[in-house]
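Example 312.
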Amino acid sequence: MAYDNGLSLARGLTLVWLVVAVGLAGCRANDCGCEKPDPEGGARVAATDCEPGIGPAGSDCASASDPGEDGSGDVDIEVPFLPLTWVAVPGGTFLMGCSPDDSACDDDEKPPHEVSVVAFEMLETEVTEAQFEHVLGWSPIGPHSKAGDVDKPLVNFTYADAVVFCEALGGRFPTEAEWEWAARSGTSTRYYCGNDAGCLDGNAWYGPNSGGVRHAVRTKAPNPFGLYDMLGNVREWCADWYDPTYYGTSPSDRPSGPGQGILKVLRGGGFFSKSDALRVSNRDADEESDDYGWEDVGFRCVRELDANAPRP
Ligand SMILES: [Ca+2]
Ligand SMILES: [Ca+2]
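Predicted structure in complex with calcium ion:
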């Protein structure tokens, strides 16, 4: 089940508008992501007449990624964009960590251990550039950041900016356990599409098919819970501190990671990643970005369904 966030009610039909606009316009006005619709009516495909992140020379595309006359980096969003959509994720118990018979697991994915999470809601996609500006009224996009298609995942933001965004929606980053539960979506295989990396092409943007760039969210198949790009496109922040030995001592009920650490957990692999890094149990970590450090790191938010439930 999926439904719009209240904040986006006014734009509840923007997806429809997007489809209409794509259908009418060929290459979307302000589509600076160098993609255009498949003439057969399918998913958007890479355009050969655009420059990534810039758009055709002299076209309207330049305005959407214009850094702004005042140099603030503000981006005017004047085109329809994908609305924020929350997906209801059920609670449940699962085996977190190294999938059965997965020889590619690193030590930090072991031992597999039983974990329970309670129901929550999760954003259907990685947070896009346009969604961020729509909610907060400003954009973190600055001189060291990338601006492109409004429906591409936001990258080159600070960790703190992303926390502010989730809190503005009454949410937070997912715990690592919530992230893996949501990504597995009832599956127990290496990838939610199976054990063979050959299934990734239709489900994820990653090294072999991305061309080394981000892609608009929601352009590959969703997982069984209806979540897009949980594997690939951009790596996603989790709330937990990273400890490679944590799985040996993790509580089973709503684990929320070690109490302190140096690195924060990143999950899912990104557009630079090889297939092994997209395994659903793979763990990654980095320092909280306090500048505009990573071009392949994004995020999505979760919020609790029961406001009275204790936080994990
Ligand atoms: Ca992702
Ligand atoms: Ca790893």
